[in-house]
Automatic annotation (TrEMBL):
Keyword vocabulary terms for this entry: Signal
Protein name: Putative nitrate ABC transporter, periplasmic protein
One Pfam family in the UniProt entry: NMT1
PROSITE patterns: PROKAR_LIPOPROTEIN (PS51257)
Superkingdom of origin: Bacteria
Signal sequence residues: 1-18
SUPFAM superfamilies reported in the protein's UniProt record: NosL/MerB-like, Periplasmic binding protein-like II
Organism field: Mycolicibacterium madagascariense
UniProt domain SsuA/THI5-like: residue ranges: 133-273
Taxonomic placement: Bacteria, Bacillati, Actinomycetota, Actinomycetes, Mycobacteriales
Length: 473
């Protein structure tokens, strides 16, 4: 009996020790997992993704929260090429907060709503364009196509369900081409589509930023269609799982505070932000700065009524690509947490909400024309190799003169940016089509835009970049 009791006591002791050992290796109830889905190469989500991650803003905010809650927050970043896999992971309850474009956001809201634990809400905007200039269609450099109409019966690469695909559908519809039958859409990831364009498998590629700018910068494509031609707002935003946010409201607040930190940093230091994003994403800094620089994407977190209205107008797109559940957009959008984040920072949300001005605009003195830089519809920018700042230009003529002067001095030009004279889209000066109108030279990001202007203005002539450089007075 004594031996039996001793054996039972020993077993109980070992079991207790084993239990203690097991508990020490089990994640503590005080550790909260935070899983973020982002797209490192989707430039208009960097304030909720690449830049946010690189600067460590979220981790810093959560560390501050942890000091008051006594909890540890373990952040995991998951990088994807498009919004679709982020949505799939949110449906599976494996991603808590994600960022993506407007059309993918619609799909996200539709697919997650059936499961209360997966159901998401749109909580903030990352970047937007009031005209839709964020997404574009490019063709091979030697293509004879000059407008979206020329794509009829051609093969076009696009990621179905993406913001780039949504832009293609809207552009075709505006050109009175049936998106379902007028072109053959090759459903491909952006990098696969880029290869298809280069190999001739596809006659065009419709994608979100930064793919169009990247291909044009690399001399692998030329711009055929600027989404701004449709004059319809496009944007990227942040979605959070409601169930997760209700359990951990401090995490969502920390994320939005961190996003505001990243947004402020980008708007205050656009060139430095572009370098950080380029280093983290592998994209050329010149391409990142095309979109993240002054006058490019509007990085503004507020859920503007115009963007919500545009999202409602995009709902028919869901029906055009598959059997998706109806989505109540008003119920999907919630600015409650973002308003709280603004209040914490002693900032007026409604004032920011009402503003339609791009927070990042070119300023300074034009050193060539010796005038202040003011009108954002005219202001350009020259970036010389070896310089840590850029040189502002008051208008296209002044920019051309600055480029010509730099060439004469043997200075290497990294990039020159100029707004399209018709649409206002920031674009590469050397990749633009130019029009001579009297003594002025006007830039257009597509040949179609230049031809529209020349056709409407007697005496105006389409010229190439070198002619514009030589003629600028």
């Amino acid at each position: 009996m004594q031996r039996l009791l001793a054996t039972l006591l020993a077993a109980t002791t070992v079991g207790s020790l084993a239990a203690c050992s097991l508990d020490s290796n089990t994640p503590s109830a005080n550790t909260i997992d935070v899983v973020i889905g982002y797209q490192s190469k989707t430039i208009n989500t960097v304030t909720a993704g690449t830049l946010l991650k690189a600067k460590g803003f979220l981790e810093k905010r959560l560390d501050d929260v942890g000091r008051s809650t006594g909890k540890k927050y373990d952040v995991t970043w998951q990088d994807y090429d498009t919004g679709a896999p982020i949505t799939a992971q949110m449906v599976a309850e494996k991603i808590d907060i994600g960022s993506m474009g407007d059309y993918p956001l619609l799909i996200n809201g539709s697919k997650t709503q059936a499961n209360p634990r997966a159901k998401t809400e749109l909580v903030s905007i990352t970047g937007y364009s009031p005209t839709g200039a964020l997404n574009m269609v490019v063709v091979p450099p030697a293509s004879t196509a000059s407008s979206i109409v020329d794509l009829k019966n051609q093969k076009v690469s696009a990621s179905v369900g993406s913001a780039g695909h949504g832009t293609l559908v809207r552009a075709l519809a505006n050109a009175h081409i049936d998106p379902a039958t007028g072109v053959e859409v090759l459903n491909q990831q952006p990098q696969v589509g880029a290869s298809a364009l280069e190999s001739g498998q596809a006659q065009a590629l419709s994608q979100f930023v930064a793919w169009p700018g990247l291909l044009v910068f690399q001399h692998k494509g030329k711009l055929l269609y600027d989404g701004a031609e449709g004059n319809y707002p496009t944007f990227h935003g942040v979605v959070a799982r409601r169930d997760y946010a209700s359990q951990h409201p401090e995490v969502l607040d920390a994320f939005l505070q961190a996003q505001l930190d990243a947004t402020d940093f980008l708007n205050a230091h656009p060139l430095e932000a572009a370098r950080i994003v380029a280093d983290a994403s592998g994209l050329p800094q010149e391409v990142v700065y095309l979109y993240n620089g002054p006058g490019g994407t509007s990085f503004d977190t507020t859920l503007k009524p115009s963007l919500v209205t545009a999202l409602k107008g995009d709902v028919p797109y869901l029906k055009s690509i598959g059997d998706f559940a109806d989505l109540d957009v008003d119920g999907f959008v919630s600015d409650v947490a973002l308003r709280t984040a603004f209040t914490t920072r002693h900032q007026d949300y409604d004032t920011a909400l009402a503003s339609t001005t791009n927070p990042s605009l070119l300023k300074g003195q034009d050193s060539v024309c010796n005038v202040p830089v003011g009108d954002p519809k005219l202001a350009g920018e020259l970036w010389l190799d070896g310089q840590t700042t850029t040189q502002p230009a008051a208008n296209p003529g002044c920019l051309l003169r600055a480029i010509r002067d730099a060439n004469a001095k043997g200075q290497k030009i990294r990039a020159a940016y100029v707004p399209d004279a018709e649409l206002g889209t920031r674009w590469f000066a050397d990749k633009s089509a130019w029009v001579r109108s009297g003594s002025d030279y006007l830039p257009f990001d597509t040949i179609a835009g230049a031809q529209r202007y020349a056709g409407a203005h007697p005496g105006a002539t389409v010229v190439d970049y070198q002619q514009a450089l030589a003629g600028a007075a």
